[in-house]
Design brief:
This protein is mainly α. Helices cover 54% and strands 6% of the residues. Strands 4-3-5-6 form a 4-stranded mixed sheet, sandwiched between helices. Strand 5, helix 22 and strand 6 form a beta-alpha-beta unit. The N terminus is likely disordered.
Length: 536
């Protein structure tokens, strides 16, 4: 017990009045002013005796509160704690639900989060997959449609008036990219899965779990994938850079099956072959079937359809059997038949890649008038500049007297490798230097594979000039791993310059192998190209 001792000090002209404030034990002094004559006011005079009597009681009461414990007043819960409690209750209710009504009862809460909605839809998917419930048991339930609207972020009116259960699911899957959303794919039909793939492409959303689930389930479908769906799937895969080999193989097989029934729709065939080129997918039976279809329906095909087929075949370096009609049609095309000048350049370069370009076609692309047409569309992109430079170099090798490309076209066209390609090339050159010091991308060897200075190889037919091309994953086609058409063109041009070309694909040369293994591989390949007369 705190004790208080002391006295009240009176000063001339003042009296002290003690007041107790809200804080426990807080005592302050208020000073009342005196009248001008120095005497107390009548009011203060009358209360002086009373104050004197109660003064000590007030002080004692004030300090007595120091020993009195504060009473805990009930506090209102914070909004954050209320929200957490509600969330926990909903989580528990979802986990304990054993039937549709028990689960969808959670959707009757005024506020349902996207996480809870996705969790409930995912559980319904699991139940339907295990035949515990049927989709028809809940597909029209307003509580389920509410969950779909939450995930799809659409208005209530729009969702209720225009969205069915299946459309809600496809919209949900097109927006979400979570693992739980991917689990819903198995409940969709083939058209719905194609719609989801197209939605991902349109939104530019590359959700790997969702794409894998789509590929797996589409591949397992018993229904044939028609040409329109095949075109949509292939183009979506190309734009999303998701070249799933199993799905592409399945699509190509269905394309072969569906082509004969297509009589007058070249646009969908054109879309398919363009996407195969973008994917660098060398499915030879499908490419052959498409080529045959174009040749059969040549009258209904546009110039762009013919050009697209040739460009894809050049990309994957494949010439289908009995395809002379297609290439003759391509060789007879004129620049004015193309949609724009860059399309003409792409066609001519593709014909050159396949070694089927006409001299007048090549010459047309390096004329100043054609360069001006390209410039009228804006800055000439680096890929187009590389094509022009390759055409110019080829003409210089085969027709030295032909006009040359303006020198400013090659300005600002760097030779850029990816990090992986750079490491791969460095490993190849390090392997060469281990057995042949001072070896570069170009070097010379004799018939026994001994290194010879390049200057001595100029006029000596017993010496072989070697050029090395390192080919990593991005330099080969898919399905059938062969060099892309552009690298076959570079190989031909190097051979025209007198080199024997050593192509080293990543499928045969592993940088992680021991140095001895890599050196043995190089020596074996060098002996092969020296003895191969066709490589001269």
């Amino acid at each position: 017990m705190l004790k208080f001792s002391g006295s009240v000090i009176w000063r001339l002209g003042t009296r002290a009045t003690l007041r107790q404030y809200s804080s426990a034990g807080a005592t302050v002094v208020k000073t009342d002013k005196l009248d001008v004559d120095g005497s107390l006011s009548n009011k203060n005079a009358q209360s002086a005796d009373h104050d004197k009597d109660t003064k000590s009681g007030l002080v004692a009461a004030a300090f007595a509160t120091l020993n009195t414990p504060e009473t805990d007043e009930p506090k209102r819960p914070s909004p954050k704690s209320v929200k957490q409690s509600r969330t926990q209750q909903m989580d528990i209710q979802i986990v304990k639900a054993t039937d549709i009504n028990g689960l969808l009862a959670v959707a009757e809460h005024p506020v349902v989060s996207r996480r809870h909605a996705l969790k409930m839809v995912s559980i319904l998917s699991d139940w339907s997959s295990s035949n515990k419930v049927k989709i028809t048991d809940f597909e029209k339930d307003p509580r389920f449609l509410k969950l779909c609207r939450i995930l799809a972020r659409t208005s209530t009116t729009q969702a209720m008036s225009s969205l069915t259960m299946a459309e809600d699911l496809s919209t949900v899957l097109g927006i979400t990219g979570d693992d739980e959303a991917a689990r819903l794919i198995s409940n969709l039909t083939l058209p719905q899965m194609v719609k989801v793939m197209r939605a991902l492409h349109q939104k530019g959303r590359r959700s790997t779990p969702l794409l894998r689930a789509l590929s797996y389930n589409i591949t397992r479908q018993a229904d044939t994938i028609d040409l329109k769906k095949s075109a949509d799937l292939l183009y979506s895969m190309a734009t999303l850079n998701f070249p799933d080999p199993l799905l592409m193989d399945r699509i190509c097989k269905d394309v072969i099956e569906c082509l004969p029934s297509n009589k007058d729709k070249p646009a969908v065939v054109n879309s398919i072959i363009v996407s195969l080129g973008l994917l660098k997918y060398r499915h030879e039976p499908a490419l052959t079937a498409i080529t045959d279809w174009i040749q059969t329906h040549m009258q209904g095909c546009r110039a762009g359809d013919i050009a697209s087929a040739v460009i894809t075949l050049a990309t994957v370096d494949f010439t289908p059997p009995n395809s002379e009609k297609l290439f003759k049609a391509a060789q007879s095309l004129k620049e004015e038949e193309m949609a724009k000048s860059s399309a003409w350049l792409d066609l001519v370069f593709a014909l050159l890649t396949l070694d089927k370009a006409q001299p007048h076609q090549l010459l047309s692309t390096i004329q100043p008038e054609f360069i001006d047409k390209l410039l009228s569309l804006g800055e000439i992109l680096i890929p187009s500049r590389r094509k022009l430079m390759a055409i110019d170099a080829y003409l210089h090798l085969t027709a030295p007297s032909s006009p040359r490309l303006p020198s400013d076209i090659s300005v600002g066209v760097p030779l850029v490798y990816t990090k992986e390609k750079t490491l791969y090339v460095h490993c190849i050159m390090d392997t060469f230097r281990a057995s042949c010091p001072r070896t570069h991308a170009e070097f010379a060897i004799d018939s026994k594979c001994h290194p010879v200075p390049l200057e001595k190889a100029a006029n000596d037919k017993s010496v072989f000039r070697i050029a090395v091309l390192g080919l990593d994953y991005h330099d080969l086609t898919r399905k059938t791993a062969v060099p892309l058409g552009v690298y076959q063109l570079y190989t031909r041009m190097l051979q025209l310059k007198g080199f024997k070309v050593l192509q080293i694909p990543y499928t045969e040369f592993n940088p992680r192998d021991k140095l001895v293994t890599r050196v043995q591989y190089i020596e074996k390949r060098l002996k092969e190209i020296i003895s191969d007369k066709s490589a001269a």
